[in-house]
Amino acid sequence: MLGGVCGTDLQLIQGYAGFEGFLGHEFVARVTQCQDPPWLGKLVVGEINVGCGHCPECAQGDARLCPRRTVLGIRGLDGAFAESFQLPLANLHPVDDLDPTLSVWCEPLAAALEVRQHLPASCKVLILGDGRLGSLIALGLQADHEVTVLGRHPGKLDRLRRLGLHAVSEVSGSWPAVVEATGSAQGLSQALQMARAHGTVVLKSTVARPEAVDMTPLVVNALTLVGSRCGRFEPALQALRSGLVDPRPLVDQVLDLSEFPGAIGRRDWVKVLLRG
Ligand SMILES: [Zn+2]
Hints:
By secondary structure, the protein is α/β, with parallel strands linked by helices.
């Protein structure tokens, strides 16, 4: 198993969603038990939402919005940082052809690429946040949009510049599209203030301790506010296989699973992978 530590894991540790159990929802792992023998030994990534199978959302094939879903390592289902964990076969995608240091990015990249659904074609996009998700969204949008990343960490901004991105610590003006990926409670307020009239704000952060937000700019500037969570795996796998996105330069550390506590709270790291 190779797993990724994500901002959501850090929020869960602080009490987000009241989850108790093993964390871990970004992974590539080998199938060790399965009723369908051809799957045994395959290297797989897995969609993390497990639906009830009966509600209207599940009937449309989208377990992400099932009201009775469990979510790997997030809601009612032990995650990938356990000795072993379970997912339905329907959630799995074989990735024996991909380098595990690439396929481990499938889940967060799927969430990052989901932003594309909400943006006008080829527009100027301001991404708030130079961390894990902001960086990944920037890499995912880079090919089709004019991307600026606004961040606060000189080292992280430098790394994004080396990856060919426009990464800055200050911006001016108002933007046709703002993607909020700060992971902080203040991110939404900031995003609403930076969007221009009739602009789009895509909200990505989930936070353990939300704050009150002044929604006036949403009304005055007739903004469109979109919440965006998990994405589908197929576009992410396609982007990884084709080389459209290569997030490997974002990795700071690969640690043994037992070293997980050391991976928590290192604000200077963008991405930590765990090997189990
Ligand atoms: Zn359902």
